Amino acid sequence: MLDQFLDTYSQFGIDTFFLLVILVALEAVLSADNAIALASISKGLTESKLQRQALNLGLIVAFVLRMALILTATWVIQFWQFELLGAIYLLWLVFQHFTSTSEEEGENREARFANIWQAIPVIALTDLAFSLDSVTTAIAISDQTWIILTGATLGIVMLRFMAGLFILWLEEFVHLENAGYITVGFVGIRLLLKVVDKSLVPPQWLVVSMIALVFLWGFSERTVVELKESEVSEVIEGQQPEIGIKVTEQEAQKSEI
Q1: Integer Cα distance of 183 and 186 in angstroms
Q2: Across the chain, which distance is largest between two alpha carbons, in Å?
């Protein structure tokens, strides 16, 4: 009796552990594009403090929506309209990003939201659209709801951490934001193909490989800010007040020398 109990407990513990590891790993891989999209959205607020608050509150709402999606997943997956709406929303985000980049080149595109209450629903809805794909994948791996809920909880914590990093990295790497939105497009197209014909959906390993390659390109070039000595002196003298580059006092002293 004791041996049977220990064997059952051991098997339960091992299976549960590996399922959680797989689910969290999937969340990490599938959330990279989600994280960069949320980071880009939060940068629509000009102050870093407001960006953090929008992410925190937005992901709290997103967490509630995720839990509701998981608990109703067996009902939701019966309706292809949900995936169609998610696909359209994600592809709209991609279209909006690339068209605004070309149309507003040279202008400040960061002030998209007047306050955090405008950014929070956008963050929550974006995560929900991504969750339509990840939750379906999680259900295919395990039919134990509590394991999926635990994996989603860990995933949302990881997503907040990753989004915070991407906010910093978006300033550091030239192609990262575009790379992120390209992968968002992959997810949108994948959802759309599931609606049209599930046989057209590429395998998960191919999607992950494509996302990895795009992100390698995204991290391939750092942002380099260089000023010629004449430009530095012009900024110091106030001739180019809107050049958008901050010059430290040490740089000013060097230029005067």
Answers
A1: 5
A2: 86
Q: Which amino acid is at 102?
A: S
| pTM summary value | 0.70
Cα(190)–Cα(87) distance, integer angstroms: 8
Structure tokens at 29: 């891989």
Residues 224-255, buried b or exposed e (16+ Cβ, 10 A)?
A: eeeeeeebbbbbbeeeeeeeeeebeeebeeeb
**pLDDT string in tens for the chain (257-residue length):** 333 333 433 344 446 666 666 666 666 666 777 888 899 888 888 888 889 999 999 999 999 998 888 888 778 777 888 889 999 999 999 998 888 754 444 444 545 788 889 999 999 999 888 888 767 666 655 566 777 777 778 778 888 888 888 888 988 899 999 998 998 898 889 889 988 888 888 887 787 788 889 989 999 988 875 544 554 455 455 554 444 444 444 444 444 44
- 3-state SS track over the chain: CHHHHHHHHHHHHHHHHHHHHHHHHHHHHHCHHHHHHHHHHHCCCCCHHHHHHHHHHHHHHHHHHHHHHHHCHHHHCCCHHHHHHHHHHHHHHHHHHHHHHHHCCCCCCCCCCCCHHHHHHHHHHHHHHHHHHHHHHHHHHCCCHHHHHHHHHHHHHHHHHHHHHHHHHHHHECCHHHHHHHHHHHHHHHHHHHHHCHHHCCCHHHHHHHHHHHHHHHCCCECCCCCCHHHHHHHHCCCCCCCCCCCCHHHHHHHHC
- The token duo for 3 is 């041996």
